[in-house]
Design goal:
With about 100 residues, this protein is of the alpha+beta class. Helices cover about 30% and strands about 15% of the residues.
């Protein structure tokens, strides 16, 4: 079986430069404070999780989207210390998906 060479993916994860541009654009396009916070949270999650926007937002017929059941809270005693996200699949995972931890500071 001959594998096709992988093509350049036009949907790259959110970079710091793109994150800053998205957050600046939100200041001029959001209809309400709620919309601003919602989209800002989405963009920051995508940046820190090295995710594409389509992996954070619902896309028809996609199994690469983060769902609530993919996110768990990690505690040390009674203190919340981190959130952990485990995707079911990833566009380039080839069956091996590792959890991503967001540590609370």
């Amino acid at each position: 079986m001959i594998k096709k060479p992988k093509s350049q993916d036009p949907c790259l994860p959110v970079s710091l430069e793109l994150l800053l541009r998205l957050l600046e654009a939100l200041k001029h396009t959001s209809q309400s404070y709620w919309d601003y916070v919602l989209f800002a949270t989405l963009f920051v999650l995508a940046y820190h999780g090295a995710l594409r926007i389509s992996e954070c937002a619902t896309v028809p017929r996609s199994n690469h989207t983060v769902k609530m059941e993919n996110v768990t809270q990690l505690y040390k005693g009674r203190d919340l210390i981190a959130y952990q996200m485990q995707l079911e699949s990833h566009k380039h995972s080839e069956g091996q998906v590792k959890p991503i931890r967001f540590v609370r500071q």
